[in-house]
Amino acid sequence: MDLGIEGRKAIVCAASEGLGRACAWSLAMNGVDVVITGRTPEKLASAKAEIEQASGRTVVTVAGDITTEAGRAAALAACPEPDILVNNAGGPPPGDFRDWTRDDWIKAIDANMLTPIELIKATVDGMMDRSFGRIVNITSSAVKAPIDVLGLSNGARAGLTGFVAGVARKTVAKNVTINGLLPGPFDTARLRGTTKAVSEKTGRPFEEVFEERKKLNPAQRYGEPFEFGEYCAFLCSAQAGYITGQNLLIDGGNYPGTL
Ligand code: NAP
Predict the structure, then answer these.
(1) 3-state class of 222 per DSSP?
(2) Atom 7 in ligand 1: which residue has the minimum CA distance?
């Protein structure tokens, strides 16, 4: 399927590995020139080399923390008029709400709510003026079904989702859509990191915990990042202009609801 986005420009935040990188990959494979951000220059350089070689498109890297004003300014300087914006950042740590301070909350809200809102604010009017824009916020299945130990994520991402629900209806008439893409368990460094934490806490071998979590999913496996990237690319396609304000799960059927 031709997604109709060849020659478009995208900013994909937090994209040197994992789900962000997969989104950048799929966009580039569909003809989009991408700016990818991340905090570690070496990881960015290897993502750039791999995506450029596979796609033949230009990949520009911006090293910096996207949750800071300087990090966002650098991303926008590299691509001042993006047609596509994929918002992403690392997820907050797990824990018990009794231990979280105001600073812990501010950090989570900064990363997973205010950073995407700032980037939407900086780009959405230009997109509307140019009559094309696709904004995808990588959030979490926790938006639909809270994950007990991830209270910081449950709270901050719910705030972003509520904000977007309103604004997404204000932009779609100008062919600018804003949607949330909600990952369930995907095999990435983050998932392996949280699995390692459980393994260390319980004293059980990593492989045992990893396999057990996998078996709990109706698909009996973890998602592969490329499956996420391809869904993201479709949401950014010319054909997806009538999809806005949605929160789309991609979780192997893990969410147990009928609707
Ligand atoms: P990942 O594999 O750990 O990759 C995270 C990427 O983001 C890396 O490229 C990392 O590079 C970059 N990054 C992290 N913090 C950043 C920051 N402040 N500024 C710029 N770049 C930053 O994580 P993932 O699994 O792809 O997860 C992506 C998002 O989806 C996270 O918010 C996660 O909580 C959420 N999620 C993931 C899953 C899952 O199963 N994988 C499930 C639900 C939700 P540097 O570290 O070098 O900056």
Answers:
(1) coil
(2) 14
